């Protein structure tokens, strides 16, 4: 007697949907763990490198225009021990970090001031909304005329570009503070500075870290762009220009750009770790019944990231 195929285990009408659901659940479980995310990320990078290698060797593009991934990786490994290239990296990193640090020193106090004084915040809103959309790259010619020296041009542009994400996130953090906590401290006799120091600033801390993380990525783009336009004695942008004019080595140019990307990934990962660290977010104000609990800056339900 023949057995109906539909009665066999795993071959029912809903077996395909159940299998897909189990596969999605396993993928979500893997992505929810730190080593799982790293593994999936490594798989994605290897897949992208393999695709570039195949396309470069297929003859669709000129080999001089699109170097194979293997050649780029070899040049990148050589550059990692090249003192001249490491000096250029340091020039870029120093201008990047100094401009970012200056932006933090300006934006956080300004955000605290504007967030604590609503009338001043309203008065400054028009200026902020007018200046914020101006691309920093569009200000490179003006910065060259004003500051003349390339390193000052780069630092000033990084500061300008990084100022707005930090300022706005500081304001968002102050607006997210529970008013019950502030009123409680005022009832105990604390003044404006006491409330700001004990409640507002700790509650806005995760938002400030998010702003710095966003500003770091923007600042790296701006500093390399400024080096490409303003020139100077060193830097990743200057290295790329010299590589282009010195015979046109696409493998060196792509490898230099990849190292710039590594800097950005490292900065974003480090600040993201600080942002997700449980101790980075100060204890929030007491929860008010009937009011939804504030979420972390990335919209996650808990500081550690995804729930397990």
From TrEMBL:
What membrane topology was assigned to this protein in its record?
Multi-pass membrane protein
Q: Cite the residue spans of the region called Disordered.
A: 275-308
Any idea where this protein resides? Cell membrane
Q: Name one Pfam family in it.
A: BPD_transp_1
Q: Where are the transmembrane segments?
A: 34-56, 89-114, 126-147, 153-172, 184-201
Cite the record's Basic and acidic residues compositional bias ranges. 299-308
A single Gene Ontology CC term: plasma membrane
Q: What is this protein called?
A: ABC transmembrane type-1 domain-containing protein
What region holds the ABC transmembrane type-1 domain? 89-271
Keywords, alphabetical = Cell membrane, Membrane, Transmembrane, Transmembrane helix, Transport
Q: Which family does it belong to?
A: Belongs to the binding-protein-dependent transport system permease family.
Gene3D superfamilies listed in its UniProt record = MetI-like
């Amino acid at each position: 007697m023949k057995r109906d195929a539909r009665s066999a285990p795993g071959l029912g009408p809903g077996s395909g949907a159940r299998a897909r659901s189990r596969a999605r659940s396993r993928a979500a479980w893997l992505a929810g763990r730190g080593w799982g995310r790293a593994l999936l990320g490594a798989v994605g990078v290897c897949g992208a490198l393999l695709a570039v290698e195949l396309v470069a060797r297929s003859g669709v593009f000129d080999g001089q225009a699109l170097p194979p991934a293997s050649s780029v990786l070899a040049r990148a490994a050589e550059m990692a021990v090249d003192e001249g290239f490491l000096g250029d990296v340091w020039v870029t990193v120093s201008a990047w970090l100094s401009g970012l640090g200056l932006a933090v020193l300006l934006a956080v106090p300004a955000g605290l001031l504007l967030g604590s004084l609503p009338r001043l915040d309203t008065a400054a809103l028009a200026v902020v909304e007018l200046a914020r959309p101006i691309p920093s790259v569009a200000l490179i010619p003006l910065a060259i005329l004003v500051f003349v020296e390339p390193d000052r041009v780069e630092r000033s542009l990084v500061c300008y570009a990084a100022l707005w994400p930090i300022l706005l996130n500081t304001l968002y953090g102050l607006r997210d503070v529970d008013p019950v906590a502030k009123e409680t401290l005022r009832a105990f006799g604390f003044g404006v500075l006491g409330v700001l120091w004990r409640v507002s600033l700790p509650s806005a801390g995760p938002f400030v870290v998010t702003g710095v993380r966003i500003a770091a990525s923007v600042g790296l783009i701006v500093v390399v762009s400024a080096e490409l336009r303003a020139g100077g004695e060193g830097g990743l942008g200057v290295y790329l220009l010299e590589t282009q004019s010195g015979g046109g080595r696409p493998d060196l140019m792509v490898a230099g750009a990849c190292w710039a990307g590594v800097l950005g990934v490292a900065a974003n990962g480090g600040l993201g770790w600080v942002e997700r660290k449980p101790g980075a977010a100060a204890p929030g104000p007491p929860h008010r019944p009937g009011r939804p609990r504030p979420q972390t800056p990335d919209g996650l339900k808990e500081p550690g990231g995804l729930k397990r």
